Amino acid sequence: MTATKVLISGASVAGPALAYFLRRDGxxxxxxxxxxxxxxxxxxxxxxxxxxxxxxxxxxxxxxREHDTRMSGTLLVDxxxxxxxxxxxxxxxxxxxxxxxxxxxxxxxxxxxxxTYVFDDSISALTERxxxxxxxxxxxxxxxxxxVFGADGVHSKxxxxxxxxxxxxxxxxxxxxxxxxxxxHLGLRRSGxxxxxxxxxxxxxxxxxxxxxxxxxxxxxxxxALDRRPRHEQEQAVRAAFAGRxxxxxxxxxxxxxxxxxxxxxxxQVHLDHWSAGRVALVGDAGYCAAPTSGMGTxxxxxxxxxxxxxxxxxxxxxxxxxxxxxxxxxxxxAENQATGRETAVTMFGGGAAPADAHTS
Length: 361
Prior knowledge:
Elements: E1 5-9, H1 14-24, E2 28-33, E3 44-47, H2 51-58, H3 61-65, E4 74-77, E5 83-87, H4 90-93, E6 96-99, H5 100-111, E7 116-119, E8 123-128, E9 133-137, E10 143-145, E11 147-150, H6 157-163, E12 170-183, E13 191-196, E14 200-206, E15 212-220, H7 231-241, H8 249-258, E16 263-270, E17 276-277, E18 280-282, H9 285-288, H10 297-314, H11 319-347
InterPro entries: FAD-bd (IPR002938), FAD/NAD-bd_sf (IPR036188), FAD_aromatic-hydroxylase (IPR051704)
GO molecular function, one term: FAD binding
Organism: Microbispora triticiradicis
Protein backbone atom coordinates (compact mmCIF):
# COMPACT_ATOMS: atom_id res chain seq x y z
CA MET A 1 0.00 0.00 0.00
CA THR A 2 1.38 3.41 -1.01
CA ALA A 3 2.03 5.78 1.89
CA THR A 4 0.00 8.99 2.06
CA LYS A 5 2.18 11.87 0.85
CA VAL A 6 1.96 15.07 2.84
CA LEU A 7 3.62 18.45 2.52
CA ILE A 8 4.18 20.69 5.54
CA SER A 9 5.15 24.33 5.11
CA GLY A 10 7.24 25.62 8.02
CA ALA A 11 10.18 24.16 9.97
CA SER A 12 9.88 26.04 13.25
CA VAL A 13 7.84 24.19 15.92
CA ALA A 14 4.40 23.13 14.69
CA GLY A 15 5.75 21.84 11.37
CA PRO A 16 8.45 19.46 12.68
CA ALA A 17 6.17 18.33 15.52
CA LEU A 18 3.43 17.42 13.06
CA ALA A 19 6.03 15.75 10.84
CA TYR A 20 7.15 13.61 13.77
CA PHE A 21 3.67 12.27 14.52
CA LEU A 22 2.64 11.78 10.89
CA ARG A 23 5.85 9.97 10.00
CA ARG A 24 5.37 7.74 13.05
CA ASP A 25 1.93 6.88 11.68
CA GLY A 26 3.36 5.86 8.32
CA UNK A 27 2.96 9.01 6.23
CA UNK A 28 5.57 10.11 3.69
CA UNK A 29 6.43 13.61 4.88
CA UNK A 30 8.13 16.57 3.20
CA UNK A 31 8.75 19.83 5.05
CA UNK A 32 9.49 22.98 3.06
CA UNK A 33 11.00 26.05 4.73
CA UNK A 34 11.65 29.39 3.06
CA UNK A 35 14.65 30.17 5.29
CA UNK A 36 17.99 28.86 4.00
CA UNK A 37 18.60 26.90 7.20
CA UNK A 38 17.13 26.28 10.64
CA UNK A 39 16.10 29.57 12.16
CA UNK A 40 18.30 30.77 15.02
CA UNK A 41 16.03 33.59 16.22
CA UNK A 42 13.22 33.73 18.75
CA UNK A 43 15.48 33.71 21.81
CA UNK A 44 13.45 31.72 24.33
CA UNK A 45 10.25 29.68 24.38
CA UNK A 46 8.38 28.18 27.30
CA UNK A 47 6.12 25.21 27.91
CA UNK A 48 2.99 24.85 29.99
CA UNK A 49 0.35 22.26 30.79
CA UNK A 50 -0.32 19.44 28.33
CA UNK A 51 2.67 20.45 26.18
CA UNK A 52 4.82 18.39 28.57
CA UNK A 53 2.86 15.28 27.57
CA UNK A 54 3.63 15.99 23.91
CA UNK A 55 7.34 16.51 24.58
CA UNK A 56 7.45 13.31 26.63
CA UNK A 57 5.64 11.37 23.91
CA UNK A 58 8.22 12.62 21.40
CA UNK A 59 11.01 11.51 23.73
CA UNK A 60 12.66 14.94 23.98
CA UNK A 61 11.48 16.28 27.35
CA UNK A 62 14.57 15.19 29.29
CA UNK A 63 16.90 16.68 26.70
CA UNK A 64 15.02 19.96 26.71
CA ARG A 65 15.26 20.16 30.49
CA GLU A 66 19.04 20.19 30.09
CA HIS A 67 18.66 23.53 28.27
CA ASP A 68 16.43 25.16 30.90
CA THR A 69 17.35 28.86 31.10
CA ARG A 70 16.72 28.76 34.88
CA MET A 71 15.69 32.39 34.97
CA SER A 72 15.66 33.93 38.44
CA GLY A 73 13.16 36.72 37.79
CA THR A 74 12.72 40.15 36.26
CA LEU A 75 13.49 43.54 37.77
CA LEU A 76 10.95 46.30 37.09
CA VAL A 77 12.42 49.79 36.63
CA ASP A 78 11.13 53.30 35.93
CA UNK A 79 12.28 55.55 33.08
CA UNK A 80 15.46 56.43 34.97
CA UNK A 81 16.31 52.80 35.63
CA UNK A 82 15.38 52.87 39.31
CA UNK A 83 13.93 49.64 40.72
CA UNK A 84 10.20 49.78 41.37
CA UNK A 85 9.39 46.09 41.75
CA UNK A 86 10.16 42.51 40.75
CA UNK A 87 8.43 39.74 38.83
CA UNK A 88 8.99 36.03 39.53
CA UNK A 89 10.57 33.86 36.84
CA UNK A 90 7.19 32.22 36.12
CA UNK A 91 5.81 35.52 34.80
CA UNK A 92 7.67 34.97 31.52
CA UNK A 93 9.38 31.59 31.73
CA UNK A 94 6.43 29.27 32.37
CA UNK A 95 7.13 25.83 33.82
CA UNK A 96 10.15 25.26 31.55
CA UNK A 97 11.95 27.73 29.31
CA UNK A 98 14.63 26.95 26.71
CA UNK A 99 16.34 28.92 23.93
CA UNK A 100 14.23 28.52 20.81
CA UNK A 101 17.26 27.52 18.74
CA UNK A 102 17.66 24.43 20.97
CA UNK A 103 14.02 23.43 20.48
CA UNK A 104 14.16 23.78 16.69
CA UNK A 105 17.50 21.95 16.57
CA UNK A 106 16.15 19.02 18.58
CA UNK A 107 12.89 18.84 16.63
CA UNK A 108 14.85 18.77 13.38
CA UNK A 109 17.25 16.12 14.64
CA UNK A 110 14.54 13.68 15.73
CA UNK A 111 12.71 13.99 12.40
CA UNK A 112 15.44 14.53 9.78
CA UNK A 113 16.26 10.81 9.48
CA UNK A 114 12.95 9.92 7.82
CA UNK A 115 11.42 13.27 6.89
CA THR A 116 12.51 15.16 3.77
CA TYR A 117 13.45 18.78 4.55
CA VAL A 118 13.66 21.33 1.73
CA PHE A 119 15.17 24.66 2.81
CA ASP A 120 15.36 27.92 0.88
CA ASP A 121 12.09 27.33 -0.95
CA SER A 122 8.39 28.12 -0.57
CA ILE A 123 5.04 27.03 -1.97
CA SER A 124 3.90 29.36 -4.76
CA ALA A 125 0.61 27.74 -5.77
CA LEU A 126 -1.78 24.97 -4.72
CA THR A 127 -4.24 23.28 -7.05
CA GLU A 128 -6.61 20.72 -5.57
CA ARG A 129 -8.10 17.83 -7.49
CA UNK A 130 -10.42 15.06 -6.41
CA UNK A 131 -7.52 12.65 -5.87
CA UNK A 132 -4.87 14.98 -4.47
CA UNK A 133 -3.26 18.40 -4.52
CA UNK A 134 -0.57 19.85 -6.76
CA UNK A 135 2.03 22.09 -5.12
CA UNK A 136 4.17 24.49 -7.13
CA UNK A 137 7.32 25.93 -5.59
CA UNK A 138 9.34 29.08 -6.06
CA UNK A 139 12.49 27.08 -6.82
CA UNK A 140 11.78 23.37 -6.84
CA UNK A 141 9.84 21.23 -9.27
CA UNK A 142 6.06 20.87 -9.06
CA UNK A 143 5.01 17.86 -6.97
CA UNK A 144 1.87 15.94 -6.11
CA UNK A 145 0.66 15.35 -2.55
CA UNK A 146 -2.37 13.92 -0.80
CA UNK A 147 -2.52 16.59 1.91
CA VAL A 148 -0.88 19.95 2.60
CA PHE A 149 -0.42 21.55 6.03
CA GLY A 150 0.38 25.18 6.75
CA ALA A 151 2.63 25.57 9.78
CA ASP A 152 4.21 28.73 8.47
CA GLY A 153 3.33 31.28 11.11
CA VAL A 154 1.12 34.33 11.55
CA HIS A 155 1.67 35.56 7.98
CA SER A 156 1.14 32.05 6.55
CA LYS A 157 1.49 31.75 2.79
CA UNK A 158 -0.43 28.48 2.81
CA UNK A 159 -3.33 30.24 4.53
CA UNK A 160 -3.30 32.94 1.87
CA UNK A 161 -3.20 30.42 -0.98
CA UNK A 162 -5.94 28.15 0.41
CA UNK A 163 -8.19 30.64 2.21
CA UNK A 164 -7.49 33.97 0.53
CA UNK A 165 -7.67 36.91 2.93
CA UNK A 166 -10.85 36.53 5.03
CA UNK A 167 -11.87 39.82 6.69
CA UNK A 168 -10.68 39.98 10.29
CA UNK A 169 -8.52 36.88 10.05
CA UNK A 170 -5.42 38.74 11.24
CA UNK A 171 -6.18 40.82 14.33
CA UNK A 172 -3.53 43.25 15.49
CA UNK A 173 -3.33 43.78 19.27
CA UNK A 174 -1.68 47.18 18.92
CA UNK A 175 1.93 46.19 19.61
CA UNK A 176 5.03 45.81 17.44
CA UNK A 177 8.71 45.64 18.23
CA UNK A 178 12.27 44.65 17.50
CA UNK A 179 14.34 41.95 19.11
CA UNK A 180 18.09 41.39 18.90
CA UNK A 181 21.09 40.56 21.04
CA UNK A 182 24.15 42.56 22.04
CA UNK A 183 27.00 42.54 24.55
CA UNK A 184 25.81 41.98 28.12
CA HIS A 185 27.15 45.30 29.41
CA LEU A 186 24.70 45.22 32.35
CA GLY A 187 26.14 41.98 33.72
CA LEU A 188 22.77 40.24 34.01
CA ARG A 189 22.88 36.57 34.96
CA ARG A 190 19.78 34.49 34.17
CA SER A 191 17.59 37.49 34.94
CA GLY A 192 15.77 40.30 33.21
CA UNK A 193 14.95 43.99 33.42
CA UNK A 194 11.60 45.39 32.28
CA UNK A 195 10.66 49.03 31.81
CA UNK A 196 7.16 49.52 30.47
CA UNK A 197 4.56 52.22 30.09
CA UNK A 198 1.31 52.81 28.27
CA UNK A 199 2.76 52.78 24.77
CA UNK A 200 6.27 51.26 24.85
CA UNK A 201 8.40 48.74 26.70
CA UNK A 202 12.04 47.70 27.04
CA UNK A 203 12.80 44.14 28.06
CA UNK A 204 16.40 43.05 28.64
CA UNK A 205 17.47 39.58 29.71
CA UNK A 206 20.39 37.21 29.89
CA UNK A 207 19.77 33.47 29.73
CA UNK A 208 22.31 30.71 29.08
CA UNK A 209 24.99 32.83 27.40
CA UNK A 210 26.35 35.16 30.06
CA UNK A 211 28.09 37.33 27.47
CA UNK A 212 24.95 38.14 25.48
CA UNK A 213 22.07 40.44 26.33
CA UNK A 214 18.73 39.83 24.63
CA UNK A 215 16.87 43.05 23.86
CA UNK A 216 13.21 43.68 23.08
CA UNK A 217 12.02 47.18 22.17
CA UNK A 218 8.23 47.27 21.80
CA UNK A 219 5.82 50.09 21.03
CA UNK A 220 2.22 50.81 20.08
CA UNK A 221 1.29 50.53 16.41
CA UNK A 222 -1.93 50.81 14.45
CA UNK A 223 -1.30 47.77 12.25
CA UNK A 224 1.23 44.98 11.57
CA ALA A 225 2.26 46.58 8.27
CA LEU A 226 5.85 47.07 9.41
CA ASP A 227 6.33 43.29 9.59
CA ARG A 228 6.70 43.21 5.79
CA ARG A 229 8.84 46.33 5.43
CA PRO A 230 12.64 46.42 4.94
CA ARG A 231 14.84 46.36 8.01
CA HIS A 232 15.88 50.00 7.70
CA GLU A 233 12.24 51.09 7.85
CA GLN A 234 11.62 48.89 10.87
CA GLU A 235 14.64 50.35 12.64
CA GLN A 236 13.48 53.85 11.75
CA ALA A 237 10.10 53.16 13.36
CA VAL A 238 11.78 51.84 16.53
CA ARG A 239 14.03 54.92 16.74
CA ALA A 240 11.03 57.22 16.32
CA ALA A 241 9.10 55.41 19.06
CA PHE A 242 11.99 55.68 21.54
CA ALA A 243 13.33 59.10 20.54
CA GLY A 244 14.35 61.26 23.49
CA ARG A 245 14.36 58.40 26.00
CA UNK A 246 17.17 58.18 28.50
CA UNK A 247 18.55 55.34 30.66
CA UNK A 248 19.98 52.62 28.37
CA UNK A 249 17.94 53.56 25.31
CA UNK A 250 20.61 55.42 23.25
CA UNK A 251 23.08 52.56 23.67
CA UNK A 252 20.44 49.97 22.80
CA UNK A 253 19.40 51.82 19.66
CA UNK A 254 23.00 51.95 18.54
CA UNK A 255 23.42 48.23 19.21
CA UNK A 256 20.25 47.50 17.22
CA UNK A 257 21.81 48.68 13.97
CA UNK A 258 24.88 46.50 14.55
CA UNK A 259 22.97 43.32 15.45
CA UNK A 260 23.18 40.39 13.05
CA UNK A 261 20.11 38.70 14.58
CA UNK A 262 17.68 41.61 14.30
CA UNK A 263 14.05 40.48 14.32
CA UNK A 264 10.84 42.49 13.98
CA UNK A 265 7.28 41.34 14.58
CA UNK A 266 3.84 42.52 15.62
CA UNK A 267 1.58 41.05 18.26
CA UNK A 268 -1.31 39.56 16.32
CA GLN A 269 -3.91 36.84 16.58
CA VAL A 270 -5.33 34.69 13.79
CA HIS A 271 -9.10 34.05 13.77
CA LEU A 272 -10.67 31.79 11.15
CA ASP A 273 -14.10 30.18 10.88
CA HIS A 274 -12.40 26.98 9.70
CA TRP A 275 -8.82 25.71 9.92
CA SER A 276 -9.11 23.55 6.82
CA ALA A 277 -10.13 23.92 3.19
CA GLY A 278 -10.37 20.73 1.20
CA ARG A 279 -7.06 18.89 1.47
CA VAL A 280 -5.30 21.78 3.24
CA ALA A 281 -5.22 22.32 7.00
CA LEU A 282 -3.48 24.84 9.25
CA VAL A 283 -1.65 24.15 12.51
CA GLY A 284 -0.11 26.44 15.12
CA ASP A 285 0.15 30.20 14.56
CA ALA A 286 -0.85 29.88 10.91
CA GLY A 287 -4.36 28.84 11.90
CA TYR A 288 -4.96 30.20 15.38
CA CYS A 289 -2.13 32.33 16.75
CA ALA A 290 -2.92 33.45 20.31
CA ALA A 291 -0.19 36.17 20.35
CA PRO A 292 3.01 36.19 22.42
CA THR A 293 1.09 37.90 25.24
CA SER A 294 -0.81 34.64 25.79
CA GLY A 295 2.36 32.82 26.86
CA MET A 296 0.96 29.74 25.12
CA GLY A 297 2.18 29.89 21.53
CA THR A 298 4.74 27.09 21.66
CA UNK A 299 2.59 24.85 23.84
CA UNK A 300 -0.40 25.46 21.57
CA UNK A 301 1.66 24.59 18.47
CA UNK A 302 2.80 21.28 19.97
CA UNK A 303 -0.65 20.33 21.24
CA UNK A 304 -2.22 21.34 17.93
CA UNK A 305 0.21 19.16 15.96
CA UNK A 306 -0.48 16.11 18.11
CA UNK A 307 -4.25 16.70 18.05
CA UNK A 308 -4.26 16.90 14.26
CA UNK A 309 -2.16 13.76 13.88
CA UNK A 310 -4.37 11.84 16.31
CA UNK A 311 -7.50 12.95 14.47
CA UNK A 312 -6.09 11.65 11.19
CA UNK A 313 -5.17 8.36 12.82
CA UNK A 314 -8.63 7.96 14.39
CA UNK A 315 -10.33 8.75 11.08
CA UNK A 316 -8.31 6.14 9.23
CA UNK A 317 -6.81 8.81 6.99
CA UNK A 318 -10.19 10.34 6.01
CA UNK A 319 -9.05 13.96 6.03
CA UNK A 320 -12.54 15.49 5.94
CA UNK A 321 -13.60 13.67 9.11
CA UNK A 322 -10.20 14.20 10.74
CA UNK A 323 -10.07 17.94 10.11
CA UNK A 324 -13.54 18.41 11.58
CA UNK A 325 -12.61 16.41 14.69
CA UNK A 326 -9.35 18.34 15.05
CA UNK A 327 -11.16 21.67 15.11
CA UNK A 328 -13.90 20.49 17.43
CA UNK A 329 -11.41 19.25 20.01
CA UNK A 330 -8.94 22.12 19.87
CA UNK A 331 -11.11 25.23 19.47
CA UNK A 332 -12.06 25.64 23.16
CA UNK A 333 -8.40 25.46 24.15
CA UNK A 334 -7.41 28.00 21.48
CA ALA A 335 -10.26 30.34 22.42
CA GLU A 336 -9.08 30.37 26.03
CA ASN A 337 -5.50 31.12 25.03
CA GLN A 338 -6.56 33.89 22.67
CA ALA A 339 -8.64 35.50 25.41
CA THR A 340 -5.60 35.44 27.67
CA GLY A 341 -3.49 37.01 24.93
CA ARG A 342 -5.91 39.89 24.50
CA GLU A 343 -6.37 40.46 28.22
CA THR A 344 -2.64 40.45 28.95
CA ALA A 345 -1.94 42.95 26.18
CA VAL A 346 -4.30 45.34 27.98
CA THR A 347 -3.94 44.58 31.68
CA MET A 348 -0.27 43.77 32.15
CA PHE A 349 0.97 46.42 29.76
CA GLY A 350 -1.73 48.99 30.17
CA GLY A 351 -2.96 48.58 26.62
CA GLY A 352 0.54 49.45 25.41
CA ALA A 353 3.67 47.55 24.61
CA ALA A 354 4.45 43.99 25.61
CA PRO A 355 7.87 42.38 25.09
CA ALA A 356 8.06 41.65 21.34
CA ASP A 357 9.25 38.11 20.78
CA ALA A 358 12.06 38.16 23.28
CA HIS A 359 9.97 35.18 24.38
CA THR A 360 8.08 33.74 21.45
CA SER A 361 6.03 31.41 23.56
